Amino acid sequence: MKKKAAELGVTEAELVREALDSQIYKIGYPKRSAGKWQEEVQFIKDRMTKKQNSSNQREWKRDDLYDR
Question: Distance between CA atoms of 33 and 24, rounded to whole angstroms?
Fold first, then answer.
C-alpha cells in the first residue's frame, strides 16, 4: 500500500477511503441525504438560539436527543 500510495502521490488513508467508496458504490449502499444533514444543522442552531435566549438551565433531557 505504501508503494501504491507513493506512485499515485496520495496518502495510504486516501487509498483506503477511495477503496471503501468504490465498494460502497458497487454494492449500492444508499448515501445519506444532504437534507438530513441540513435538518441536523438546523436542530443545533435552534438549540443554540434557545440556550442564548434562556437561563443557563437546559430545557431538555438527554433522552430527548434519542427520540430524533
Answer: 15
Phi-psi region of 28 (alpha: psi -120 to 50; beta: other; left: phi over 0): left
In which residue are the cell numbers 437534507 written?
35
Query: Taking 90 as the threshold, does the pLDDT of residue 57 lie above it?
Result: no
Q: What is the spatial distance between Cα 16 and Cα 23, in angstroms, rounded to a whole number?
A: 11
AA identity, residue 43: F
List of residues 6+ apart from 8 with CB closer than 8 A:
15
Q: Report the predicted TM-score, pTM, of the whole model to 2 decimal places.
A: 0.40
End-to-end CA distance of the chain: 41
